TrEMBL record:
UniProt cross-references to Pfam families, sorted A to Z: GYF_2
Organism (species): Dyella telluris
Keywords for the protein's UniProt record, in alphabetical order: Membrane, Transmembrane, Transmembrane helix
Protein name: DUF4339 domain-containing protein
Annotated transmembrane regions: 126-149, 161-181, 187-207, 262-282
Region of interest called Disordered, as start-end residue ranges on this chain: 1-20
Domain (GYF): residue spans on this chain: 8-50
Keyword RNA-binding: no
């Protein structure tokens, strides 16, 4: 008598579950279980054949394929001590038997298969504000070098990343634009090369963002990188994400989240400065126009 108990399946040396009775019956109907499939549920002392618990769903199982002539490990034999515990916590890694070659897959959670965050290459953790400051102090040279450091780390976690090549191609286009049309902003070729630089540079950052989101998902860390913010603040915004990842790797905590509003505030600073300068300059200009007009009237008299 099952009495609604969840069921564990043992097949081909692998344990999986727990499954509901409806899931098991559907698996039987789809012929996913063979004659050697064993099951266990709370209350049983041993693993038992699947079809002994579901005689009403018994179907003629397909004939097993003939054994290969090559030597292989002996089939796993499940005994009472191999069964899962009487209680199951979906948030904890499930026990694995000590016999060589034995595997376990949990239907509810794959926590035991997660990659350890300590295996992740350490990302560059320089604060984005310092990257911004060093870029100003070096007249933009640091802002050209640092993206290659970021792309190099992305290449470590994603060997297929082409971000470094795109950054290098963009830099070549920028240098070529200055050689082809030095000081001539009206040059068509120079303009096209400059446009190619911006396109390659932005594309490289979106490529890095995609690699980071895909690869960090393997470490069960959801990374959210806003496209608009990345477009306008690519180097600095991505660095904020990398610093956040470095802190998570060190502490295991993903809070607080990477900053985003700070970058929009940074965007408003030039607007605020221009508005302040305009508030000072416009009245001065108006006074100058009035004085000039008065002087013209005096000369006319």
């Amino acid at each position: 008598m099952l009495n609604g108990e969840k069921i564990w399946i043992a097949q081909d040396g692998q344990r999986s579950g727990p499954f509901t009775q409806e899931d098991v019956r559907q698996g039987i109907a789809e012929r996913r279980y063979g004659p050697d499939t064993l099951v266990w549920h709370k209350g049983l002392t041993e693993w038992v054949p699947l079809f002994s618990l579901f005689p009403e769903n018994t179907v003629t199982p397909p004939a097993p394929p003939p054994p290969k002539a090559t030597a292989s490990a002996p089939a796993a034999v499940f005994t009472a001590h191999d069964r899962p515990g009487s209680t199951f916590n979906a948030n904890d890694p499930a026990p694995v038997a000590a016999s060589p070659g034995f595997g376990y897959a949990s239907h509810a959670d794959y926590a035991s298969d997660r990659v350890d965050r300590r295996d992740l290459p350490t990302p560059p953790s320089l604060h984005w504000g310092l990257v911004f400051l060093f870029s100003i102090l070096t007249l933009g040279i640091f802002a050209i070098i640092w993206p290659f450091i970021q792309a190099n780390w992305v290449r470590k976690i994603d060997g297929d990343s082409k971000a470094t090549m795109m950054l290098a191609g963009g830099l070549v286009c920028l240098v070529a634009s200055e050689i082809v049309a030095p000081g001539n902003r009206q040059s068509v070729l120079g303009g096209l090369l400059t446009l190619a630089y911006y396109v390659l540079w932005i594309t490289a950052y979106f490529s890095m963002a995609d690699s980071i989101k895909r690869k960090l998902a393997e470490y069960s860390l959801p990374v959210e990188i806003g496209g608009v913010t990345l477009f306008f603040f690519n180097t600095f915004y991505l660095q904020a994400q990398l610093s956040w990842i470095a802190r998570w790797q060190d502490t295991g905590s993903s809070n607080p989240k990477p900053p985003k509003a700070a970058f929009y505030f940074l965007l408003l600073v030039p607007v605020f400065v221009i508005a302040m300068l305009a508030a000072i300059a416009i009245p001065q200009y108006q006074n100058y126009v009035k004085r000039a007009h008065a002087m013209e009237l005096q000369r006319g008299q």
